[in-house]
Amino acid sequence: MRIDMSSTNADAPAGGKRGEVNVDKVTCDFSGNRVLHETDLTVQAGEFFTLLGPSGSGKTTLLRIIAGLIDFTSGRVSIDGSDVTRLPTQQRDIGFVFQNYALFPHLTVAQNIAFGLKLRKVRGAALTKRVDEILDLTELGSLKDRHPSQLSGGQQQRVALGRALAQRPRVLLLDEPLGALDRRLRQDLGSEIRRIQQESETTAIYVTHDQEEAYILSDRMGVMEAGFIRQVGAPREVYSAPTSAFVANFLGETNTFPGEVGGHEAGATVVRVGDYAVTATGQPALKPGELCTLSARPEQIRLSTGLGTVPAGFEPVADVTVTEARFFGQTIRVRLSDVNGSYLVDLDSSDSIPEPGAPAVMSIRSHSAVVLPANR
Ligand SMILES: Nc1ncnc2c1ncn2[C@@H]1O[C@H](COP(=O)(O)OP(=O)(O)OP(=O)(O)O)[C@@H](O)[C@H]1O
């Protein structure tokens, strides 16, 4: 279903979709503490962009600055090329969804959705048509006469989403909207949010600390730490090519090995780890002899019993000892260690389960590990 986007609200800029957001060198201080540092961000019109990061990294602050809810120290926010830095929230043409649904308890689902439209003087047939469109989009038609107290958490959040979209905002801002729901519902409603965003062609900026949610939903994501956006990219790109140890670790389990750059060949970086040499990607500017860290995801690593049994296409990186092996259904999760630290490898569930104390060789798929600057 395509939703009619013709609107009395701000129309699309000539020749394009609406809702491009630009954040330009935004700095924010609270009581003398800097919580955002000269932050730049561009979210394309129609894009689903996620701000992902640990608690306190500045995600909500940045979202609220885009919304116009916070006075910040310096910088500029624009939507569709117009500077909105000094424009009040209600004139920014923005929709919000928060963790606590904030529905009007005395109004039905349909009345909640109609509320903002009525404030904007939408009446009669136009009002009914738009409310029906939103009930279709959010698949709430059969619940339209219920009150919020008669709905599940997931249904209430769909009403909140519908209410936010009813006025065809240029940008939809969502702050941990699935935070109060259980895991299963989070996945289902996450997919729903993505579908609704795509069908309504609305730019979405979504805040979460849950990387799985970010993967499922996002066209691109920005990973935040301590008031900085550390890396921006498509989920797969950021997962497989992190540019810092923080991003590598925050986006999932990873193994790190202290190494030294051996040289560069054919666009790859050869890293020496102890007596071994591994072909990896990233950091072409590091010079031979410079210290670095090699980072590899558990699924990029194989275990073997000796050098003669390293699989084709893999390169040995460390001689280790098995410390623990556990069956996890789809995988066997093996913990290992050597003098440099501990590691994690996922084996296929059909592999044999290694015994604790057994020696093993870890090897990495060629060109799959990432080189990071040392100590980052
Ligand atoms: N009104 C405020 N006054 C003072 N400090 C604040 C205020 N709001 C946020 N902060 C601080 O700013 C920093 C960033 O907070 P923010 O809420 O943006 O983080 P977050 O990444 O969204 O975290 P969470 O996932 O826990 O919501 C934190 O250190 C927080 O304590």
UniProtKB/TrEMBL annotation:
Top-rank EC class of the record's enzyme: translocase
KW Ribosomal protein (keyword) present: no
Coiled-coil features, chain-numbered ranges: none
Enzyme Commission number, as recorded: 7.6.2.9
Domain ABC transporter: 21-251
Origin superkingdom: Bacteria
GO CC list: ATP-binding cassette (ABC) transporter complex
The entry's keywords: ATP-binding, Nucleotide-binding, Transport
InterPro entries in UniProt: AAA+_ATPase, ABC_SmlMolc_Importer, ABC_transporter-like_ATP-bd, ABC_transporter-like_CS, Mo/tungstate-bd_C_term_dom, P-loop_NTPase, Transp-assoc_OB_typ2
GO molecular function, a single term: ATP hydrolysis activity
SUPFAM superfamilies: MOP-like, P-loop containing nucleoside triphosphate hydrolases
Protein name per UniProt: ABC-type quaternary amine transporter
